[in-house]
Design goal:
It is built from one helix and ten strands, in the order H-E-E-E-E-E-E-E-E-E-E. With about 160 residues, the chain is mainly beta. The protein has a single domain (about 25-155), classed as Beta Barrel (Lipocalin). The longest helix has 18 residues, at about 5-20. The chain is globular, with a radius of gyration of 18 Å. The N and C termini lie far apart (about 50 Å).
């Protein structure tokens, strides 16, 4: 193989790898309320999030506040679309799947949580924009729909 063909081959591998490399969401993140679009009366947005992403596994620890009470929840996902079961509200089981977009630039986590004989569906799309982690979330149930865009800056 001549030098020119070799260099083109190496360049093609580098470009392909960088184009299809999945985003790494790992880090300690703090909610930036000025950049976020949160619900007016109620927000699902945690104040801080700690993400640990390794290979096919991701752990998301959310630190939230509701009616003056602070609480922490931790969800563990496999990043291959297989169903994962985590603790939901009031000792329910939250069943989730996590799937990368085709370009590996965003991760969609879809969760189903049983609530009072019904099912709430929560969809969260994680991505990186200008160094911030952005989560576009939508919750749907018989109580209605709620959408938010949560922007987190690295601590």
């Amino acid at each position: 193989m001549n030098t020119k063909k070799f260099l083109l081959s190496v360049l093609a591998v580098i470009l392909t790898t960088s184009l299809f490399a999945q985003v790494d969401l790992s880090g300690n993140w703090k909610l930036n309320t000025s950049k976020s679009k949160l619900g007016e009366q109620f927000s699902m947005a945690p104040k801080t999030i700690v993400v640990s992403q390794k290979s096919n596994d991701m752990s998301v620890e959310k630190h939230s506040e509701f009616q003056g009470n602070e609480f922490t929840s931790t969800d563990k996902y496999t990043l291959d679309g297989k169903e994962c079961v985590n603790k939901g509200f009031m000792d329910t089981e939250k069943k989730s799947t996590a799937v990368w977009s085709g370009d590996k630039k965003s991760l969609t986590v879809t969760s189903k949580i049983p609530m009072q004989g019904e099912t709430m569906t929560i969809t969260e799309i994680y991505s990186m924009e200008n160094g911030s982690m952005v989560i576009k979330s939508k919750a749907s149930s018989s109580y209605g729909d709620m959408e938010e865009t949560q922007v987190y800056d690295k601590k």
